[in-house]
Amino acid sequence: MILAVRNLSKGATAKASIESSTKCSDSVISVWELDQCSYASVQSFASRVSAELERVDILLLNAGVCPLNGPWRHCERDEEAITVNVVSTFLLAFLLFPKLRETARLFPDTVSPGPTMTVVTSLAHTYTDFHLSRTAPEGQLFNVLSSPDRREVTMDDHSDQYFISKLLQIFLIRSLAAHCPVSKTGVTINCVQPGFVKSGIFKFEGTFAVAMAKLMIGLVARSTEMGSRTLVHAASQGG
């Protein structure tokens, strides 16, 4: 198992926790650096996977950010949520898809039910009317999503930016699955929505926003372990 993490020290802590709870050998899990705010990091990680791993049975694309208020942060050319949740997620998917196909071809009898690519999505994709799809000039949607005008409109509430990023994920995963069916590639492409889960994805600024967020998370959010069960179920295709 490869833990792809932006912060290596936190990754090491997660590795130790998994080893402690599962009693697995310390050789089972490796921690590799991956920062989806950087396209160079995504490309470097994909190159390392292709060069160093004999096979990839499951690719679980789980990285995401949800900055709900405060100053915008740009990564590469786009706003952070668009870069991390959409562009880098699918850049990594496209770069590693050949490795998944290779695994299906070289190990047809040992991979059951076959290599799987799973993208972690969200019910939040239903919360936007995505009016920008009708008003943005053709070919300029990402520029509009990251423009100063957009930033001013959403200064106090960035939630629609996150909702749109999750909707774009749905569009892309459906298109990828349609163009690369398992019948031709040997690779299953799916997505999963784990529900409202306690995690570090939400970013708030201001004491009131933080207090309200913590209250809601404490009252109704599922535990991280419980939410992770849906990810395992999707990535293993119920196996």
From TrEMBL:
Gene3D superfamilies in the cross-refs: NAD(P)-binding Rossmann-like Domain
GO MF entry, a single one: oxidoreductase activity
Parts of the chain that traverse the membrane: none
InterPro entries the UniProt entry points to: NAD(P)-bd_dom_sf, SDR_fam
Keywords: Oxidoreductase
PANTHER family: PHOSPHATIDYLINOSITOL-GLYCAN BIOSYNTHESIS CLASS F PROTEIN (PTHR43157:SF31), PHOSPHATIDYLINOSITOL-GLYCAN BIOSYNTHESIS CLASS F PROTEIN-RELATED (PTHR43157)
The protein's name in its UniProt record: NAD(P)-binding protein
Native species: Neurospora tetraspora
